[in-house]
Amino acid sequence: MTTEQLLHTLKQCRKNDRNAQRELYESFYRYGLSVCVRYVADIDTSRELLNDGFMKVFSNIDQYKPDYPFVNWFKRILVNTCINHLRKSHQEIPTAELVEASEMGMEMDLFGKFSVEEIAILIQQLSPAYRTIFNLHVIEGYEHKEIAEMLNISIGTSLSNLHKARKKLQELILTNNF
């Protein structure tokens, strides 16, 4: 979908045009599902969260500003929807504090040796807490302060969970002979 087509579709979505909503849904379904699956391993739950995200998009479409990339706005809605689901389902981030959490030596260029599918398989094996922090920091690029505010945890907990996620990924790589 070109930028011009997207802007036209969004304009029609503002008018509650069902055909435009279907077009937007079909155009962004795969991308949206890939975002949700990074946070929630169960595919059925990921699809539900994606649909919830689309409902939020359609009901709040007037808040979207065309000078901001739609895909970024959409992704933010999906990430927040997934985080809210994790909170409600009691898969919250552990609140145990670490006085000092040092970053591990596992560099992300190590992932350059793997296919996207292999990386996704590894990340899905992390606990929901570790997977959430890992995705927010490494994949989405949020700083620990932002993550702490989003999840109502301390910065130390965010650092600790990222450290543990990286350690677990290293173990998975070694034990699965990747």
UniProtKB/TrEMBL annotation:
Residues 122-169 form the RNA polymerase sigma factor 70 region 4 type domain. InterPro entries: RNA_pol_sigma-70-like, RNA_pol_sigma-70_dom, RNA_pol_sigma70_r2, RNA_pol_sigma70_r4_t2, RNA_pol_sigma_r2, RNA_pol_sigma_r3/r4-like, WH-like_DNA-bd_sf. The keyword Metal-binding does not apply. Keywords: Sigma factor, Transcription, Transcription regulation. SUPFAM superfamilies: Sigma2 domain of RNA polymerase sigma factors (SSF88946), Sigma3 and sigma4 domains of RNA polymerase sigma factors (SSF88659). GO terms for biological process: DNA-templated transcription initiation. PANTHER family: RNA POLYMERASE ECF-TYPE SIGMA FACTO (PTHR43133), RNA POLYMERASE SIGMA-70 FACTOR ECF SUBFAMILY (PTHR43133:SF46). Belongs to the sigma-70 factor family. ECF subfamily. NCBIfam families: sigma70-ECF (TIGR02937). This is RNA polymerase sigma-70 factor (ECF subfamily). It comes from Arcicella rosea. The lineage of its organism: Bacteria, Pseudomonadati, Bacteroidota, Cytophagia, Cytophagales.
